[in-house]
Structure formats: structure tokens, C-alpha cells
Amino acid sequence: MLNQKLITVACVWLAWWPGVLVADDRRPNVLMIAVDDLRPDLGCYGSPVAKTPNIDRLAARGVVFSRAYCQQAVCSPSRTALMTGLRPDTTRVWDLKTHFREAVPDCVTLPQYFKAHGYHAAALGKIYHRGYEDGASWSESHWYPTGRTVDTDPADWTKRITGSVAGEVSEYAHDEPRIARKKGRAFVVSDKTDDELPDGATAAEAERRLATLARDGTPFFLAVGFAKPHLPFVAPKKYWDLHDPDAIPAPRVDRLPEGAPEFAGHENGELHNYQQIPPGNPLPDELARRLRHGYHACVSYTDAQVGRLLDALDREGLTADTVVVLWGDHGWQLGEHGLWHKHTNFEAATRSPLIVAAPHPKAAGATCPALVEFVDVYPTLVDLCGLPAETGLAGTSLRPLLDDPSASVKAVAISQYPRGKGGNAAGPLMGYSIRDPRWRLTVWRETGSARVVATELYDETNDPDETRNLAMQAGHAPVIDRLSRYLPEPAGD
Ligand SMILES: [Ca+2]
Predict the structure, then answer these.
(1) Residue 159 pLDDT more than 90?
(2) Which residue has the higher pLDDT, 235 or 8?
(3) Binning pLDDT at 50, 70 and 90, where does residue 21 land?
(4) 298 is a catalytic site residue
(5) 3-state secondary structure 284-311
(6) Domain count of the chain?
(7) From CA 301, how far away is CA 228, in angstroms rounded?
(8) How far apart are CA 352 and CA 294, in angstroms?
(9) Residue 28: cis peptide before it, omega within 30 degrees of 0
């Protein structure tokens, strides 16, 4: 009887408690794992070739969001949207050169909000785009692994380009001399150990930090950013050896959709920045195969580092008190549509990994097909940790989906990408892409104007490879009209 009464009291308290219950009345910690250029090609997303046992074990105690979309498929705009909870048209970060504090100087970022509520907020590795850090976000200086971050051969490092090439500024432009030659090698089967490469060093530092944070007892928001599988594909040999390159399938479709404007694609400029890549497109088949092998090797290398973080949470007794969120900052084209890397509005570039594992899950191991956006991460973590809701954010809490993965919280997910270079960062054109459960509508408008230059419509259910633009075909005006209602007001200069 007494036990029944205690259970009743506990249930009432649980229902009242605004955040996730942890072992005592402390708020849960947050471990946020950011993986650069990770597409949702993982075991827990149904990939038949990925070797990702550690991300998969995180997924087994959390919820996998199978339709999560970034707000713009390139590092800084995507990361800025996630970290500020604001869309690119609000932060005015559409490129790799603009800091969000220029347009929204007083915005309170996700970790900054946690810091204001008593959390120790710390960042290791790439969280914001490198070189565009934000001191107000953290309780201490942003930590990076020492030395060179992505390559192994010092001779290559003197050959890097630091300027803007095909719309992509070098990831590490601030610490490299400007020499008008190509970057280093596009892929390396490395003889280094995990910890001799930057992501291993970052994982080792994260292990140390988690031990210290566990002893300290203050709630923490620890952000850990991994640099792989971003180009160049450098991973220890053992991760290459995990994969049979003959088993990694080539994309089914290697050309732009029939009826799509040429500018919906691009010239693979980021990839052509690297050595080993001959001019012109498409790439030779053997090279494409090698690159796909390298990508998956780097994903497995990063997965091993994620595993070290999960092990450290267990070892330090933190797992039951910590919300873990893992995201890749956008998708990645491995030859789909004849395209490599990101920088488009296609499904392969905008659809991104998002996994949330909260203490005491109601739906552990579930896959949630609801449409969600990266701007939802901020309000979700605030909600899960029981902090007062921050106002003015663009997204919505995904907590209802963690409780019931068959639910939905929004009708569409919106991504965007500018095209062309002009006198402003937004470019002459902005393509807004509206994704609902079945369709993807992309409308290209003149920047700062409502004038439509081109329209694309894809039936993602019946044509998941986006082989045909249906926008000009009869009978689709109603769906175009319906989805067009979600187009934002014109933005930009
Ligand atoms: Ca990225």
C-alpha cells in the first residue's frame, strides 16, 4: 500500500517535472556530438555498408530522426542555424565568411543559454565553423586539437589554398599561408594511430573532460566536434580495411534530374580543390570508388571516437544523467546526381543525421519519420533539461516525438541555398526548398525579391532518386501552390 502511494506520488511528480528526471534533482547534462559532413548513411539508418557500431548503440537507447533536415547544406550556415535556433535569413549567415554576431549581435546561443542557467558550457573541436568561434557561448576557451587538423603529410600543408574556391573557403584558412596551389591529398590511408589524428586527440580530451566534469558535479553542456568524414578522407588503415570497396554501391542516378536547372547542381569545386582529383566531371569510376571507400573509412574512424565518448559516460557514471545528441551538419553527395559533397538543395545534401538519447527513454531504439529541422535542436534540449523556454526561436521542441515517435510536430522542413556570387552574401539567387512527407518543392528566386526564376518539384516517395522535375508537368499546380505557402518573405540585400 505504502509502495503504491509512493509510486503514485512519484508519477505525479514525474508528470509535473518539466525536464527529464535524473538521479537527483539536478538537471541533466548535455553531450552534443557534432560530426562534420556526416550523411545519414549509418547502420542505424539502415545502411547495408556502413560500419558504425557505436553510433548504432547510441541510437539503440535513443531516437533516430530519419527525416531531419539542415537549414542550409554547408558548414557555417547549418551550424549557425542549429546553435542559434534561427534560420539563415535571420542570422544572415549564408556563407563561410559571415559571423552571426554581425546580424544578430545579442542573440543567445544554445550553449550560452545553458551557461546562463548554471551549466558549465565547453567546446572541443569544430562546433561553429572554424575561425568563427563565439566566446559568449562558452564558460571557457574553445579547445581544439593541436597541430594540423586534417592531413598527415606536412609537405601537403604548405600547398593549401586559403582563398575562396568555387564558393568554398578553406576549412582552416586562418592558419595556412596563401599559396595558389591545391590543397593536400583528397584521401590518405594513414599509418597513424587514432590519437595521432585530430579526432582521436579530441576524443581523448573529451574523455579527460568528462572525468573532470563528473567529479565536479556541476551540470554541463559539453560540445564535441569531429572533423571527419569531411574531406580529405584521412583515416588509419584499419578503418579502410573494415570496408570492401566493391560492396559500396555507386549511386543509381549520376546526372541532374530531368528538367532541373543547371544551377541546381554545381561543379564539384570543393572536391577539385584537392590533389589526386583530375579536372572535369564526372570523375573516373575507379577514383569515385576510392572516394566512397575513403568516406566510409572516415565515418568508421569517427564512429570509434564516438564510442570512446559513450564509454566515458558509462565509466564516469554519467549515462543516466546525460542527454546525448549527435548530428552531422548536413548531408553529403557521394556521386548522386553526378555531384560530390554538399552545396545543393537536393535530398542527399539536406537530409542529415540526428539522434537524441535522453535519460529514461520511452521509445529507445525507435526511428521517428516525422519532419524535423536543425533549428529544433535548441528548443528540444532546453525542454529536455527543464530550462524555461527561450522565446524567439524558429524551431519547436521534439520532445513529443521522443515520447511518441509516430507523432509529428510540423508540416514541412525548410532548407535553402544561394547560387551565384554578387555584391552580397546571399548571391543573386536563393533557392528555398520545402519538404513535406512526400514532396520536395524548390523555388529559386532573385535574392531580396519574390520573382521566381525556376521551380523544381520532386516526388520523394515514388522517385526517391529525384530523376525528374515534375514542376512543369500537368496536374502538379495544387501541390506547388500548397507548399509555396511556406516560402519565406524575401530576404537579403
Ligand atoms: Ca560540414
Answers:
(1) no
(2) 235
(3) very low
(4) no
(5) CHHHHHHHHHHHHHHHHHHHHHHHHHHH
(6) 1
(7) 8
(8) 19
(9) no
Please report, for the domain that includes residue 331, its CATH number.
3.40.720.10
The residue ranking higher by pLDDT, 181 or 278, is 278
State in Å: Cα 299 to ligand 1 middle: 13
Ion ligand 1, residue ranges at CB < 5 A: 36-37, 75, 329
DSSP 172-189: TGGGS---SS--SBSEEE
Catalytic residue, candidates 129, 142, 296, 330: 129
Length of the chain: 493
Contact 224, 31 (CB under 8 A): yes
Residue 490: other Cβ atoms inside 10 A: 14
Q: Is 266 a catalytic residue?
A: no
Q: What percent of the chain has pLDDT over 90?
A: 81
Is residue 77 reached through a cis peptide bond, with omega within 30 degrees of 0 on the bond before it?
Answer: no
Categorize the per-residue pLDDT at 397 as very low, low, confident or very high, splitting at 50, 70 and 90.
very high
In a domain, 460, yes or no: no
CA of 216 to the centre of ligand 1 (A): 33
pLDDT of residue 24: 52
In a domain, 139, yes or no: yes
Instruction: Find the domain containing 353 and state its range.
Output: 27-410
Q: Is 103 helix (H, G, I), strand (E, B) or coil?
A: helix
Q: Return the half-sphere exposure (C-beta side, CA atoms, 13 A cut-off) of residue 141.
A: 3
Q: How far is the CA of 224 from the centre of ligand 1 (A)?
A: 14
Q: Is the pLDDT of residue 106 over 50?
A: yes
What cell numbers appear for 258 in the block? 530531368
Question: Is residue 489 included in any domain, yes or no?
Answer: no
d(CA 464, CA 251): 12
Grid cell digits, residue 31: 553531450
Grid cell for residue 302: 569517427
**pLDDT (0 to 100) of residue 170:** 37
Measured CA to CA, the distance from residue 310 to residue 207 in angstroms comes to 9
